[in-house]
Design a protein that fits this description.
The complex is a heterodimer.
Chain A: H1 3-15, H2 17-41, H3 46-57, H4 60-92, H5 94-123, E1 134-141, H6 151-160, E2 164-179, E3 182-191, H7 195-198, E4 206-207, H8 212-215, E5 216-217, E6 220-221, E7 223-226, H9 228-235, E8 245-248, E9 251-258, E10 279-282, E11 295-300, H10 306-323, E12 332-338, H11 339-343, H12 348-375, H13 377-389, H14 394-430, H15 445-472, H16 477-480, H17 489-525, E13 535-540, H18 550-566, E14 570-577, E15 587-592, E16 601-608, H19 612-616, E17 620-623, H20 628-632, E18 637-641, H21 642-649, E19 657-660, E20 667-673, E21 687-692, E22 700-706, H22 710-722, E23 730-735, H23 736-743, H24 745-779, H25 781-789, H26 794-824, H27 839-865, H28 869-874
Helix pairs in contact in A: 2-3, 4-14, 5-12, 5-14, 5-15, 6-10, 12-15, 12-17, 12-24, 14-15, 17-24, 17-26, 17-27, 24-27, 26-27
Chain B: H1 13-24, E1 27-28, H2 29-39, H3 48-61, E2 64-69, E3 77-82, H4 84-109
Antiparallel strand pairs in B: 1-3, 2-3
Helix pairs in contact in B: 1-4
Classes of the chains: A alpha+beta, B alpha+beta.
């Protein structure tokens, strides 16, 4: 009788309880009648016979109760009994229990930890009302994917789209905030009027939302909204804060509103906005065609779908291209995507890879536990066979075993949750820079519920095979098996299968981790074209009131460089930004001045002072560097990188003229510099031009070549520059190496975590391999004894065991590699400089597994080889 | 009679007795008890309080199945018969029991 039909029968029994009761009544009455008839035959009077029959019955109700117990109560009562019994069994073998619980805790713990991340980052909807309707509009122009739209296009989308009801721009950046003479750098965002209402931030906790018409005048900010945290921390929660004056980026502004507590700005990684914004500043919607790079957030009309909005924007985009063909030489594609999807786009592949890896860890853990359960078969088999012989059904025994497993699994799950808490702490410590909503990662109710579910499923996964195997013995073979006899062939085969699958399962995360390790090493070793060693960077933000003209600003940079050069330990200093591989980079388009019709190229620029190339160790290939004279006379010159020179002028670039975006007059090329990787180490193709700082004025960065430690030179630089006068704060002083390190943080994170999981699976597989082989060998003690007695040498026994181990490992590894080939394909987007079928990785992984296997197999083999035939045969 | 009736059956023995009794022919509750009483020459006197729970348990396990019979006169009677699975089960149980008996004998009759 199958389990299913038993269960169904029980459900039916519950449903037809009333009818069953009636049936039982009839049955018992018939019984009494029959007994009475029997007494009558023996000569009793009918009434006396009936009474005797009833007395013999010892109470109709009691009998009915006991039958009912069998019918309904048995399932429930038995479950409790099973659990108690299971706990007792575990208590009697604490070593076994400990190993099983710890193995499961590891498997379940890593899963709970990663699930808590996936849940917080990928699955939970964004913390905004009706978040599914919030979309991001992206614009792809030729060669510049996800560049976001120009304000002009946005302006048109805003006025013409029917399905996107409100549209807002956000620009994340930091700002200096000064309250009562105390200044600090805070996370800030410049937002258009619609953004806060669109994200459901209104009504605010205090005051009103930003209105550009009142709170800004051109680029001059007059009013700001501050965060609840900032209001509490710096303004003591002053209830009359509205109207209070603060200094933001050296502008005198007033507070117009205070955000609700805990409001977070969750934006795509490309926006570089902090989630905890402290100062919200107004930003005007300007109909310029050229300004690009801002995230565009919109809200869909209630009845519109993303697909419909997409169709509408596609039509709009082609009409833009028709009207402004010069602004979109390569065409324009507007894409609508749900905000939640865009926010997680960069981290999703890595998180999926990690989820898969922890799945493997858990599978290996389950296989390990299953193996352990099987190894206990010897002791339990007899016990179970006796119970079987005494009338316990197979279903009953299976249920018993599964309940025992559930007890272990629940213990393992509880320990796993503790482990997951630790794991979340470790994740926080490794701290990947671009993991959105990291603050929300926690072991909460959902994670616990999920873990509980996973625990129950695991207990079935690891318990089913052993339970089926144990209880199969219907004929009590176990009862007459000799105590030290060999395992039946079938059971040995099962052990081997499990070990084999364990090795196979561990190969996949190992290969994945190996590929990530290679990727990371490749990123570190890739020539980046400049020399970051001993370079310190420091941002300088000039007060535009104090430094109102280009010449004043240039003079300041000159003075600052001179001051810093005088500091002890400084070898060279200059100004130029943004630093290569920093998160924010500025792109622009350019072309040869003579070909007016040609499509422009996309590249980046650095605004520099003389000596920048030298400090950064960027080689000059031809011509000259930007000079002091260029700055003094505001010459429109440029140094271009060798790739650009090659692309536009076949390398002969000196003296040629370059037309660039945002500038009517062309630049004269005076030098050619070596190519550097400026946006991303993985990206070799970005072209670069270096222009004097007055050509494109941006917030500047001091670059200092020094062998002095950051802890002494940092404050010295800050002091030297700030001593020149007010309005020139120096902040964010970092090593160039750290900026580069941060740019590959996400890869480092994936690599570290994946390696951790791979190591865990390797250890589990090693332990499983050792445990099983040791067990299988010990079961063959007698056989080996006989072999030795018949003349086998120790070496031949050693060979026998090692051959078995090697065969299992080899088959498992082959199987695992086949799986790895199929699975690691999905990693392709995360890799750099290696293919998923990287020979070095595969060979190393196989070698590693081979070494672990050799150790795991070696010890049992050694023991087997030293068997003394007399002792072995006496173990009977 | 081979001695006083044994009140407490070894757990599981009753199932075996019932199955064996039904192997010969389908019977209803009282008849099963009487048959066991007769066959064991009065050693096992099965009470209704043990018999009916056992019958229902065996029925749930699928070894036996009950069927209502309507006699021409009087109440309907539920009689039980061995299923095909029950028959197979009984063979296995018999064998197991033989081993238990042998084992018990070995222990009890071993020289002290």
């Amino acid at each position: 009788m199958s389990i299913l039909s038993t269960v169904l029968a029980r459900i039916r029994a519950l449903r037809r309880r009333a009818r069953a009761d009636r049936d039982l009544d009839d049955e018992l009455r018939a019984y009494v009648d029959a007994r009475a008839a029997s007494y009558e035959r023996r000569g009793l009077a009918p009434a006396a016979a009936k009474r005797a029959a009833l007395v013999e019955l010892e109470g109709v109700e009691q009998v009915k109760e006991r039958v009912r117990d069998v019918r309904i109560g048995s399932a429930l009562a038995a479950a409790g009994r099973d659990a108690r019994y299971g706990a007792r069994v575990l208590w009697r073998s604490p070593g076994y229990a400990l190993v099983v619980v710890m193995t499961l805790a590891l498997g379940i713990g890593v899963n709970a930890a990663i699930f808590s991340v996936v849940h917080a980052v990928l699955w939970r909807s964004l913390p905004y009302p009706d978040a599914a309707r919030i979309v991001v509009v992206e614009a792809d122009t030729r060669g510049l994917p996800t560049a976001y739209s120009s304000s002009g296009a946005v302006f048109d989308v805003r006025t013409q789209s029917r399905l996107i009801t409100s549209i807002a721009q956000v620009e994340g950046r930091d700002a200096s905030l000064e309250i009562d003479g105390v200044m600090e750098r805070v996370a800030a965002a410049r937002v258009t009027d619609d953004l806060l209402p669109l994200l459901g931030a209104t009504p605010l906790a205090l005051g009103r939302t930003l209105v550009t018409a009142q709170d800004a005048h051109g680029i001059v900010v007059k009013g700001v909204v501050i965060s609840h945290e900032m209001w509490q921390r710096r303004l003591e929660g002053d209830p009359h804060v509205i109207g209070r004056r603060l200094t933001v980026n050296n502008f005198d502004v007033q507070v117009v509103g205070v955000m609700r507590p805990g409001f977070r700005l969750v934006l795509p990684a490309a926006n570089h906005a902090e989630e905890r914004v402290d100062v919200w500043m107004p930003r005007e919607f300007a109909p310029e065609l050229l300004y690009r790079g801002l995230t565009l957030v919109g809200r869909l009309a209630p009845e519109a779908s993303v697909t419909e909005a997409q169709a509408e924007l596609t039509a709009l985009a082609s009409s833009f291209v028709a009207t402004h063909s010069s602004a979109y030489p390569g065409g324009l594609r507007l894409t609508v995507r749900p905000l939640g999807e865009v926010v997680t786009r960069e981290v999703k592949p890595a998180l999926m890879a990690l989820s898969a890896a922890v799945g493997f860890v858990l599978l290996i853990a389950c296989v390990n536990v299953a193996n352990l359960l099987l190894a206990r078969a010897k002791t339990r088999e007899r016990e179970l066979a006796v119970r079987r012989a005494l009338g316990a059904t197979r279903f009953r025994l299976m249920r018993q075993l599964l309940a025992e497993n559930l007890v272990v699994a629940l213990l393992g799950g509880a320990c796993g949750l503790l482990l997951a808490r630790l794991g979340v702490g470790v994740l926080d410590w490794i701290r990947p820079v671009h993991l959105p909503r990291q603050a929300e990662i926690a072991i909460d109710g959902v994670v616990m519920l999920w873990t509980a579910g996973l625990t129950v499923i695991s207990s079935v996964v690891f318990g089913l095979v052993p339970a089926l195997t144990f209880t199969r013995d219907a004929h009590g073979q176990a009862l007459h098996a000799s105590r030290a006899g060999s395992l039946p062939l079938r059971s040995r085969r099962l052990h081997r299968c499990l070990v084999l699958s364990e090795v196979a399962l561990s190969i996949v995360p190992l290969v994945a981790a190996g590929l990530m390790l290679r990727t990371f090493a490749n990123l570190l070793e890739t020539p980046i074209g400049f020399d970051p060693a001993h370079v310190v960077t420091a941002r300088v933000s000039l007060n535009l009131g104090e430094f109102s003209t280009v010449d004043r600003r240039s003079a300041f940079y000159r003075d600052a460089i001179a001051r810093v050069r005088e500091l002890p330990g400084v070898e060279a200093a200059s100004v130029g930004g943004p630093p290569p591989l920093a998160p924010v980079q500025s792109t622009l388009r350019f072309r040869r001045s003579e070909d007016r019709e040609a499509a422009s190229s996309i590249g980046m620029h650095r605004s520099v002072m003389p000596g920048y190339l030298g400090v950064m160790g960027i080689p000059l290939r031809a011509g000259r560097d930007i000079s002091g004279d260029d700055i003094m006379h505001r010459r429109r010159v440029a140094v271009v990188d060798e790739r650009l020179a090659g692309q536009l002028w076949q390398g002969d670039a000196i003296g040629k003229r370059l037309s660039v975006e945002y500038s009517k007059q062309p630049l004269e090329v005076v030098g050619v510099a070596g190519h550097i990787r400026a946006r991303d180490i993985r990206d070799a193709g970005t072209l670069m031009i270096y222009v004097p700082s007055h050509v494109y004025e941006i917030e500047q960065t001091l670059v200092v070549k020094t062998r002095a430690p950051l802890s002494t030179i940092g404050p010295a630089i800050k002091q030297a520059v700030e001593a020149l006068g007010p309005g020139r704060p120096v902040f964010d002083i970092r090593l160039m190496d750290d900026i580069i390190g941060a740019s590959i943080d996400n890869t480092r994170f994936t690599m570290l975590v994946l390696s951790g999981f791979a190591l865990a699976s390797l250890v589990l597989a090693g332990v499983g391999l050792y445990g099983t082989l040791a067990y299988l060998t010990s079961q063959r003690t007698q056989e080996f004894g006989v072999r030795v007695a018949m003349g086998a040498t120790a070496a031949s026994i050693l060979r026998l065991v090692i051959r078995e181990g090697c065969l299992l490992t080899g088959l498992g590894a082959a199987l695992g590699l086949a799986g790895a080939v199929a699975v690691t394909r999905a990693l392709r987007g995360l890799l750099y400089g290696v293919t998923p079928l990287d020979g070095v990785t595969i060979v190393s992984v196989v070698a590693l597994v081979a070494v672990v296997a050799l150790v795991a197999v070696g010890w049992p083999a050694w023991r087997a080889a030293r068997i003394d035939p007399v002792t072995a045969l006496r173990t009977e | 009679m081979a001695g006083p009736p044994v009140e407490s059956l070894v757990k599981g023995t009753l199932d075996l007795l019932v199955l064996r009794t039904l192997e010969l022919q389908p019977l209803h509750g009282a008849a099963i008890a009487e048959r066991i009483f007769q066959t064991t020459r009065g050693t096992f006197q099965v009470k209704a309080g043990s018999l009916f729970p056992a019958l229902h348990r065996l029925e749930q396990d699928g070894w036996i199945e009950g069927e209502w019979e309507m006699p021409a006169r009087g109440r309907r009677i539920k009689s039980y018969r061995l299923t095909r699975e029950g028959r197979r089960h009984l063979v296995a149980e018999k064998a197991a029991w033989q081993r238990v008996v042998t084992a018990m004998n070995l222990v009890l009759e071993s020289p002290s």
